[in-house]
């Protein structure tokens, strides 16, 4: 029990730069208090003391502002940062090393008892402030849910869900875009990582510039091949683009022009 408590305290010291000492974490962090009291409530719940488990959960809500149903399963080193107004449903499962911010709801969309109504968070998931994760699906390991996102479908491991309704941004696509941007000496994420129209337009420009570079390389290759075979009169097929694909009008709409 004490080793688990030590790991919970250490995870807060690791993730919160405002935490200055173990004593401060033990006495002043409601997220830690909520996790410790939930474990007691969960033991009561799983051993048949349903009312007692709910009563401990109710007291925890009163003391910390965090409502966790005693039936929910919470892993090790879970950090509720600030966490006022967090609601965790009965069949929710939170994996190890997750971080959950204030105003988050891990809720259900079904009214049928005995079913998996609430989400399952994998290991290392981060759920931003005000996010609503609703339904009996899985948020994969290492995924991120943006602030105020409303997620109603599974999120793949390593992906990011943003917006209302949430859109899934694959991590590998972000990495490729960032690599293309860094080659040009500019990173869109240095300005913003949000999905505002200007950011979307900049991402479109980066993707288009990367595509144009590829097409230019194909054209040069085709020209060299044609020159090499010109004397023989061969017709060499070329897969370079033959028409422009730059959607200027769409980019103008995104930036509101």
Description of the structure:
This protein is α/β, with parallel strands linked by helices. The chain folds into 2 domains: 2-169, Hexapeptide repeat proteins (UDP N-Acetylglucosamine Acyltransferase, domain 1), CATH 2.160.10; 173-254, no CATH class. The protein contains 7 helices and 15 strands. It has helices at 2-15, 22-28, 30-46, 50-64, 171-183, 197-229, 248-254; strands at 67-68, 73-74, 79-80, 87-88, 93-94, 99-100, 105-107, 120-121, 126-127, 132-134, 138-139, 144-145, 150-151, 160-162, 167-169. The strands form 3 sheets. The chain has a 6-stranded mixed sheet with strand order 3-6-9-12-14-15. Strand 14 and strand 15 form a beta hairpin. Helix 3 (30-46) runs antiparallel to helix 4. The radius of gyration is 25 Å and the shape is elongated. The N and C termini lie far apart (60 Å). The model is unreliable at 186-193 (pLDDT under 50).
